[in-house]
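pinned: reference chain
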Amino acid sequence: MRSDIMNIEELRDLLNNKKLVEVKKILQEMNEYDIASLIEELPDEQLIQAFRLLPKDMATDVFVNIDEEVQRNLIASLTTKESKSIIEDMFTDDAADLFEEMPAILVTSLLSNVNSETRNEINKLLKYPENSAGSLMATEYIHLKEGLTIAESIERIRKQADDFVSYDRCYVTDKERKLIATISVKDLLINKPDTLIDDVMEKCEHAATTMMDQEEVAKYFQDYDYSSLPVVDSEQRLVGVITIDDIMDIMEEETTEDIEKMAAIVPTEKPYDKTGVFETFKARIPWLLLLMISATFTGKIIQNFEDQLAAYTILTAFIPMLMDTGGNAGGQSSVSIIRALSLNDIDFKDIGKVIFKESRVAFLCAITLGICNFIKILLIDKVSVLVALTVCLTLTITIILAKIIGCSLPMIAKKIGFDPAVMASPFITTIVDACSLLVYFKIASLILGL
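pinned: its structure tokens
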């Protein structure tokens, strides 16, 4: 099979040489995701050419796997008939995601061409707040009414099989479309045809509301191993379903966002290789400027103690080690707490317990590092015992302070409505640096008589 050796250079050559029949044959043998990954690297003209070679039953599946920015450019370049076919074949949640970032004029133009049912469903999803369950859900789900038999239920599923986003579970509603229970496809298959679904259906333990935050929805999937979750409105009427593939995308986005915030980068929605130099610059420069300005405080502290440093210049040599160790200690605590908060292992009410635990950990770390550093300073740096004592006492206190600050700031941030990831290493390091210098010069004044 040729598809296992197909690469972007070979595809470009075949398209340039007008070997369209060969390209079509190769693409038909490939997986939809692999096709999407391959053709999205093509220039716009060749991308459209390759996409039009795909069979209709493959085109939509390939389209939904293409990068979002490429999707928007592609759909705008297709004919009215082609775009109509793709949009109507897409699940509503995928179509809503496509339109979310598109210009309003283009959205209006594209939606005006699709059938009214599809248009209404997409418009409903676009009205929900971003990152809510309503904006994630698909409206194509298996919906059964109470009182049906197994045979009637299976026949209903068979007639609309191509319209469902998930097949593992059916949702049972009453006459007012209120969600009352679920039934697995397995139960439909193993029970007798004349059995009422009321006799085998199970109570629906969990359902998301349309306004529920996507992170709360993801928690349901994580805790209960769901592959799909029903979505209800304020009156408990079934309006959609969220599937595991949507949640996997959300978890990836949330993790990426947290990592970027922890590294003092403004979160971006594009992958690294799709982000331009200027966009990357804009994402990084705000926090760098803020951290640079905040570092002015540490500079001012050192300036205020210039006379003491002049009397004991050897003290200057240990400033980087004290600041770096304190920053590292605070960073360890903050990352652990941010992770625990994201998993809902702890909450603000646990702050006392967390500080108590981190204080004990800090004490053990501080004593160990202090003793090791004391020996190292005497044997390698060959300074006086009083200087070594000054440095090591500062190190001990700095580590304890750093770990307490590192564990408490993320919890306080979450309590007042900020993302705990903001209180990660760069931010905490700046605070700890200032604290370590104040402690250092205070101890030096007491022990060395500065």
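why pinned: Strands lie at 143-145, 169-173, 179-184, 202-203, 208-209, 228-232, 238-243. Confidence is low (pLDDT under 50) at residues 1-5.
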